[in-house]
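Ex. 9. Protein: MarR family transcriptional regulator.
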Amino acid sequence: MTTHDNHNDTTVPTSPRPLGYWLRVIDRRLDDTMRDLFAAEGISRRDWRRLNLIAGTVSDPRMIDRLAARPERIAPLIERGWVTGEPRSWSLTEAGDAALHSLHGRVSSLRATIADAVSPEDFATTMSSLEAIARQLGWSDDERMPRKHGRSFGHGRPGEHGHGVAHRSEHGHGHGHGLPHGHAHGADRDRGTDRADETE
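Predicted structure tokens for MarR family transcriptional regulator:
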């Protein structure tokens, strides 16, 4: 489907699919890509979040308290030789620090790939527009990342608004992939608690 600009006779492509369709396609693709990225290292996305918490690159005392109450969740990282110490005083080993930096590089590379899909100006406009829409719908900065509901959204054919198959990520959450906030390729922050409840 196309629309025509009568002033300059250029053709501007548009999509017959609703906003929710594209948001969920991107959500699914990011879920799969991030899962594969960490699986290649033999860890899960939860392990990645926990590494960031222990390293101090993410601050979330509530999650640290939960991990301290369930220290077995750190056991895989200890067994890999990446983490040492006792609950509430965990720290990264030299190997763990090297793994974290390597993973940060791979995540940053993925972000750069995503950002490169459009111009820096278009990417900034997209991000600010999505935030404006979220705020218009009642979102505020102090909200936690929403969990997915058991309903389906927009994975059907063009023109079908939300009658496709519902997608749930590996841990039952569908958002918070640490999308780049801006177009800087050197970004090295994971916005680690975008989906901080993955440490639970």
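Check your answer against this statement. Residues 15-199 form a domain with the Arc Repressor Mutant, subunit A fold (CATH 1.10.10).
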